[in-house]
Amino acid sequence: MPATGCYDGLSDRDDAFGSGADGADGDGDDGAEGGDDARPSAQCSAEGPSVGLTGLRLLTRYEYDNTVRDLLGDTTRPARALSPENQTTAFENNYLDHRASKDLVRQYMDVSEEVAARAVDERLGEMLPCDPLAIGEAVCGHLFVEQVLERAFRRPATHAEVTAFKALFDTSHGQFGFSEAVALTLQAILQSPQFLYRVEAVPPTAADGDVVAVTGWEMASRLSYFLTASMPDDELRAAAAAGRLSTVDEIETQARRLLETDAGRQAVREFHRQWLDLTGLGSVTKDPTAYPTLDPATIGQTWEDSVEAFAEHVFFEGEGTLEGLLDSNLAFLPPQLAALYGATPDPATGGYVLPGERAGLLTQPGLMALLAYPDQSSPIARGVFVRHRMLCQHLPAPPNDVPIEPPSPDPNATTRERFAEHTENPACAGCHVLIDPLGFGFEHYDAIGNFRDVENGIAVDARGELAGIEDDEAAGEFDGASELAARLAGSQDFHECVVHQWTTFALGREPAEADECSVAHVRQSLTESGGDLREMLVAIATSDAFRHRIVDTGGQ
Amino acid sequence: MSKQPMLRRAFLHGAAGSALALPLLQQFEGRGHAEPGVADDGFPLRFVVFFHPNGVWPQSWWPGGAPSENAWDLSPSLATLAAHKDKLIVLDGVDMPAADAGPGEDHQQGMGAVLSGMPLQVGNFVGGDGSLAGWGDGITVDQVIAQHIGTTTPFGSLELGVRASAFGGSEVRTRMIYAGPAQPIAPIDDPVAAWATLFSELDMSPSDMAVLRNKRVSVLDTVAQQFAALENQVGTEDRIRLQQHAALVTDLEVRLANAPALGEACLPPGAPAAIAPDSANTMDAVSALQIDMLVMALACDLTRVASIQYSNGMNHTQFPWIGSMSDGHGISHAGDDSPALVNEGIAREQWFATQFGRMLDRMAEIPEGDGTMLDHTVVLWINELAQGNTHSHQRMPFVMAGSAGGYFKTGRYMQYDHAPHNDLLVSLQNAFGIEATTFGAPEFCNGPLAGLT
């Protein structure tokens, strides 16, 4: 059912190929690009791999923190002092948006000084490959440079690089002594492009437009930053050094291994923080009269952690499927908060079983709290969230001349009744028939995601309709979030959106038309594995788009 | 490297006002007039932008009665600025056609255009009419002015925010300052971070500072060398990216040699206590800290161009300290049939005016020559909309304070007939010695705004 009536129509961008050059044509009412054309059943290897243009990726704050942790043992998360990444997608790692600025460059300097000082003050001995007292400071300093560059630059250093950093060490050693020379060398490393960017060089013989496989070292970084959001670990570096990362089998083996690491679990959590915009919980305030036991200073972080923990559980301990993500009554809350929700301990998982009907990720207390007002639920925010984040659809903003403040709480009416004007007033109805019936499905969850059967003494009505999607079989009426979740989980639209989100996160850009075969490969893997989320991630890592790059030397 | 402990010489709160009534900034006197951005009396000129979102309430914002250029009363929203009325220019009848020309919805368009005079790029942000907007498409006027008058200071410009990145992170609706097309500059929302950036090193002895500078220069020299080598190994777009980064490193290295003016008006504040930068409960306190640090950064000649951005058009913030608990953006859409919400909106507008006033107060407390810092400054108050419940870009609520060393004739209410706001951006360039006749998209520019000088 095409989404007519919402101004020019629902902007359906889930064609998986981004907007790119045709981005100006945003009316998107021309139907199901993702639905009815003949889809390639595998990567188009017969014609050679095809991949969209990409560029150098600047480390995000999250990646920077993880990288200095793994490189230098610095666990202080120093990149919190850096300016936030610019965003045009849900994700912070889009290479087109996240670029250097005057503030970032100064902050890189400040942060490098702090990180280097801590490394030298607290961990000099463990950082050095040698004992300067035994073999001499100059010799040991040079050994340190040789050793640290390979890890910091995530590939063997060139002769010129080693020479340049040894020179900096020598000059600094003469002026300021050994440990300060180590610190200044580290500062320069941490501000160098080989550290701050994930550099992928142009092969000497490549021509503009050539599609080339990335090198083993580049592949190691692609894998490690996608699946662990950090620099390659020792095993991955060994595989790169041995030239083993040129085969799909080895890439798959490494991807599966990385997913099982603690860093892999953290990266999955981080994806969900960005996908679901959980950072917004930091700005949320709740009505202290209605919820006197919540600590405003900590509740946002607690909620964020709990949603991430749920996703981690589904990926690694639970079913590990898309269906499982939307079908669970578990939450991972601190005991005191669990009590507020009337949840009972679940010894098998270490989490809590929430009372009432629940739909996994969709009804996590933190997410429901994010998508609500201080003192009442927000069917609008929840409906829009499903359209944007779960279906990759985009809705225009409301008209300018209508009040958008929620109707005031009324002791004699339910939220649903108070919001009825949206779908009755023709000026609003165009879009709100697509938003409100989804949002009303969450009416069993109040402003903090607590389950309720009655509101103001009136039975909650959580009936709604999933409409405006391409998958006709999944569309239809539902009663409550569980039934909505079942329709979503069974819909092609949701599957395609999740693939789109993960692929965008993995590539650091939205998939382009040239990535069509890779995206189809990922979708197929998800379908054939019965919606297995980790298989989807492995499929992304082994896709043509992830293993190749198009050479851009135009205009040279 | 570790930094020296900070002496608590002044505080950002409390009696700072009286402490600032200090003698002349001797070091500025007698400077040549030829230097860009220096007034005839030798004091530096400064440009400051003050932003609040979601438009204004016309019934409270515009002067009542039949105001004329020289006979006008402060409106209810601006009444708190009485002490500075003779330093103000209230601009009426200025439109923002550049905002309406490109893709995007009105908040997006207003943010992208208000300081750049350019329509938005086409991109990935979904606009209200289904059009897909990108980032702003040009350098903003503050950055152009900074390139002209800000070359001798440690910082080219300073961007501060009060929950500027809340409710949306860094996207087109939260960014108003651009270093160039699609190069938004993020304001610093955290007062502790702002303090560390600006003031943490001002207590070092000159000799320690010289050593630190030498170390940084040798580190940055090595870094610059790495950029130069790498540029030849990457593709075309990547090379441009690296070159832009390398240019910023070079600029930083040059600025390390620019010393602050540690004169008598420069009282570096002590480090503020940690404070939640993104909370309705701390927003008023964060505002006071940011304003005071901004003015002190000017007094210490750390920079001559600065801005402060209050949240953004999508904010859902409450103002608990004035008892206003409704949703920020929601309030702005209220119509005449919702008087309680309108009154909340007006109360918030008046609070923004008190913050604007606080900044003017701080500047007016610093004597410079025959006047004060405010006389050597232009503070431009902007918004991304004219009115929240129409989303219009016509009759934009621009207010200026300060004369840029006598360039603008202040104390006036100026009425225009749909003048494009690009003209105002030209006038601002001219005020800081840039001999330009156009700014932003030329089709929306007629030259400097008439009657300001």
Describe the structure.
The complex is a heterodimer of chains A (556) and B (453). In chain A, strand 9 and strand 10 (458-459) form a beta hairpin. With 556 residues, chain A is mainly alpha-helical. Chain A has helices spanning 61-72, 102-127, 132-135, 137-152, 159-176, 178-191, 193-196, 216-227, 234-241, 248-260, 262-275, 299-316, 322-325, 335-340, 365-370, 379-390, 415-418, 421-424, 426-439, 481-489, 492-507, 516-528, 533-541, 544-547, and strands at residues 11-12, 57-58, 197-198, 211-213, 330-331, 344-346, 351-353, 393-394, 454-455, 458-459, 463-466, 476-479, 548-550. Among the domains of chain A are: 57-198, no CATH class; 293-492, no CATH class. Chain A contains 24 helices and 13 strands. Residues 1-5 and 11-42 of chain A have low confidence and may be disordered. The longest helix of chain A has 26 residues, at 102-127. The radius of gyration of chain A is 26 Å and the shape is globular. In chain A, the strands form six sheets. In chain A, strands 5-7-6 form a three-stranded antiparallel beta sheet. In chain A, strands 1-8 form a two-stranded antiparallel sheet. In chain A, helix 4 crosses helix 5 (159-176), helix 5 packs across helix 6 and helix 8 packs antiparallel against helix 9. Among the domains of chain B are: 38-79 and 88-135 and 156-200 and 264-278 and 297-306 and 361-375 and 415-453, no CATH class; 203-259. In chain B, 32% of the residues lie in helices and 12% in strands. Chain B contains twelve helices and eleven strands. Chain B has helices at residues 16-19, 58-61, 97-101, 106-113, 141-149, 191-199, 206-231, 236-255, 283-299, 328-332, 339-364, 421-431, and strands at 46-51, 88-95, 122-126, 132-133, 158-162, 305-310, 367-368, 371-372, 377-382, 399-401, 412-420. In chain B, the strands form three sheets. A seven-stranded mixed beta sheet of chain B has the order 5-6-1-9-10-2-11, with helices on both faces. Chain B has a two-stranded antiparallel sheet with strand order 3-4. In chain B, helix 6 (191-199) runs parallel beside helix 9 (283-299) and helix 9 runs parallel beside helix 11 (339-364). The N and C termini of chain B lie far apart (50 Å). In chain B, 60% of the residues are buried. The model of chain B is unreliable at 1-33 (pLDDT under 50).
